Amino acid sequence: MPDLPQPALRIGYGWDSHEFKAGIPLKIGGITLPYDKGLGGHSDGDVLLHALTDALLGAIAAPDIGSLFPPSDPQWKGADSVVFLRTALERVAAAGYELVNVDSTLILAAPKIGSHAATIRKRVAELCGISADRVGIKAKTPEGIGTEGAAIAQATVLLAKKERASSSKHLPTKHKKQR
Ligand SMILES: [Zn+2]
After folding, report:
1. d(C-alpha 21, C-alpha 61), whole Å
2. What is the extent of the structural domain holding 33?
3. What is the pTM of this model?
4. Could you tell me the distance, in angstroms and rounded to a whole number, from the CA of residue 169 to the centre of ligand 1?
5. Residue 109 near residue 19, CB atoms below 8 Å
6. Separation of 46 CA from ligand 1 center, angstroms?
7. In whole angstroms, what is the distance from residue 55 CA to residue 75 CA?
8. Would 175 be classed as within a structural domain?
């Protein structure tokens, strides 16, 4: 393939769903929420981190989460989904991009996410290595779509091409503009 310049920006989108099951911990966005049911799945069922992982992989046209971490592979049984997210972030960095911001929507009947949104946001930001003001976490209830037994997550990411080493020196004016 010809060595065409990479685009300055790339967008990524991910979608995931898992079914609620009794007696397992509920993991959403890398934290455990207090609830009597959790999300079933081969890994820890963290629907938000899975959607985010797929958004990151999709943005760089890499294979999706199911291809990189196949459910048929016993090593991912009960896996911490942070591992998937870290792999996607490493791939993004290796492709020469950095994460600008994340937006996401959770669709679930219960538990209510409102009081946990700030914690989830902080944790997702920390896992992604960006500040919390670059992470959107929204929650909706599934009105009329009959998905009360499941949690759905959608995530969108924006990536920016990293500056070349020669032009990315830490300039003192980068964060503070002179008056
Ligand atoms: Zn999943």
Report:
1. 33
2. 9-162
3. 0.89
4. 39
5. no
6. 6
7. 23
8. no
68 vs 54: CA distance, rounded Å: 10
Two tokens, residue 154 = 């959608």
* Residue 174: inside a domain: no
Q: Kindly give the distance from the C-alpha atom of residue 121 to the centroid of ligand 1, in angstroms, as a whole number.
A: 19
Ligand 1 centroid – CA 3 distance (Å): 35
- The Å distance, Cα 70 to ligand 1 centre, comes to 11
**CATH number for the domain harbouring residue 86:** 3.30.1330.50
DSSP state of 4: P
Q: From the CA of 31, how far away is ligand 1's center (Å)?
A: 15
Residue 177 has pLDDT above 80, yes or no: no
Q: Where are the alpha helices (DSSP H) in 31-129?
A: 47-59, 65-68, 82-94, 117-128
179 in any annotated domain: no
Give pLDDT, residue 5: 86
Which has the closest alpha carbon to 125: 55, 52, 66? 52
Ligand 1 center from residue 30 Cα (angstroms): 13
Asked if residue 145 belongs to a domain, the reply is yes
What pLDDT score was predicted for residue 112?
96
If one counts the domains in the chain, the total is 1
Q: Residue 164 — very low, low, confident or very high, per pLDDT cuts 50/70/90?
A: confident
